[in-house]
Structure formats: structure tokens, C-alpha cells
# Entry
Amino acid sequence: MNVVDQKKVNELVAKIQLNPNNYKVLERIPLTTIDENASFPILLSTVSDDSIPMIILDFETTGLSFINDKVIELAMLKVSYSPKQQKIVEINGIFDKYEDPGIKISPKITELTGITDDMVRGQYITTQEVASFINGCDNANQSFPVIVSHNAAFDRKFFERRFPQLTNYPWACSIKDVNWDKYGFNSYKQEFIAYKLGYFYEAHRAIVDCQALAFILNQLPDALADLYHNVFENTYVIALTGNTYDIKDKLKQMRFIWSQANRYWVKVNVREQEKDELINTLERLGLTPSNINIQYENAMSRYGENSIANY
# Structure
């Protein structure tokens, strides 16, 4: 329990009033105070006739490997998005469940997430309850909402490994499907974006991360609109093999990322209109067609386990 020292608070307020330019005051993201016992729906704006369902999803896990590590928490926020308003207009539900990984949680993960062995002991997340929350019913084979994650390349793989019957969802990534540079952010880290907007939250708890992401996206309607638009864009992944050492700096400038797992350079979300020009540039740098591997993707496959973009 935090004890407020009113004297220190008064002193700090006086300092801020005297030199306001020397301080930056952050507000807790208000959506992060909502829990599963809230009365849903929670209106954030006027609900319009174009509102569509979205699921904002986040995992906490025992590590970074979707092959070797285990889920310890799955959180989902069910929302309605209005393309006309470019806003999340309604929160319709919260799903937040622990799962026993069957192994001891490392002190590092507990320090990062606050999740202990006692919190997850005996807990299990069923495929049926996940499908029911996402779809609004028990039928996992109907038309699906978009699942949004702030690192879909991580979350989608854990999701589909853990729930292999639930692989028919379109996914969006609020890291890769938003050009944060365009909106004045030189980092895509969620905590950093919140800070630049004047807010804070307790990160690395899955449900709080989901609530914070919903709030952040609603503060940046153009970014949210870009994310939604990009879901329906067909894109390509380009992976480069062969000797690329001499051009690695140019590849970095072109936003290629080194895949340590695969030992090649990769660029994701290449749009149709830029693909041919990018390939021509790579060939001028000395790469041959056999060194340039191209994979077509859409929202149903993007960020999945079979993508050559795995890094």
C-alpha cells in the first residue's frame, strides 16, 4: 500500500507551479482501471452503424520461443471500431485468464510480469472459452473479427500453437501495420508512445497492455485507421540469402531486419506498389533473383508460423 506524504505532495505542487517547464505530469491511462466486473458495454463514443468487432490480444509467457516456452496469461479486450469515426467506440468485454505452464516460472519472468507460480497453479484456458469470447458464440467457424496485437509476430504464433483449432482469424499488428515515424514517434514501444502522449500504465500484465493499446490507438485516429486499412492490403515478405555483408548498411536503411533465427535479412509488409522497385534496387546492389525470396501474404497468414519473416 502506498502512503501519500501530503507535505511532499504540496512541496512538489509548489515547485511545478513555480517552474512548470521543468516538469512533465503523466496521467494513468483511464481504461486500465476497468476490470471484468465492469458493466459492459462501455461507451467511448457514439456507436454508429458501421461499427465492427475487434479483439485486442496479449500474452504473458515463460519466454520468447513459441516452440519451447509456455503461456501463463492470455488477455483479450473485445471492442467495436467505427471506420467512419476512426475510433474504438465501445468496449464489450474483458477476458483475462492464467494458465499453469507445468514448469516453474523463472524469477526474471515473475519480476517482469508479477505472475507467480501460486497465481497460475491448476489454471487452464480452454479452446471453447477462447472461441466463445472472440466470436460471441461457441462456433469457431463463422465470420471472424480482426485480432490486433502490439507484436503479432509473437502473439499469433503462441496463440495458434496453443489453440490449433483457432487459426482462421485475420490478424493486425500495431507495430508493423502503423508507420509510427509518420506520427512523430521514433520508437514503437507501447510504453514510450503512452509517455509521449502524456500517460503511463503498469506494463507487462497482459490485460493492462490490451487496455493501454486500445486507449493509445484511440488517441491517434489516423494511426488506427492505417492499421485497419492495412489489414485488407495484400503484402509480401522479402527475405535475402547469399552474401549480403557488404550491403548490410544499405539494407538497414531500406528497413530490412536481420533474422537471427534464419540467418537472413527480411522485410515485411511490402506493398504491391513498392515491390518491383524494391527488387530492382536489390538487384542493382548485386543480388540475383535466386537470392531474393518473395512470399505473398494477407491478414489470414501474416505474422503466422509459416511466414518466412520469422525472426
Residues 259 and 311 are 5 Å apart (CA to CA).
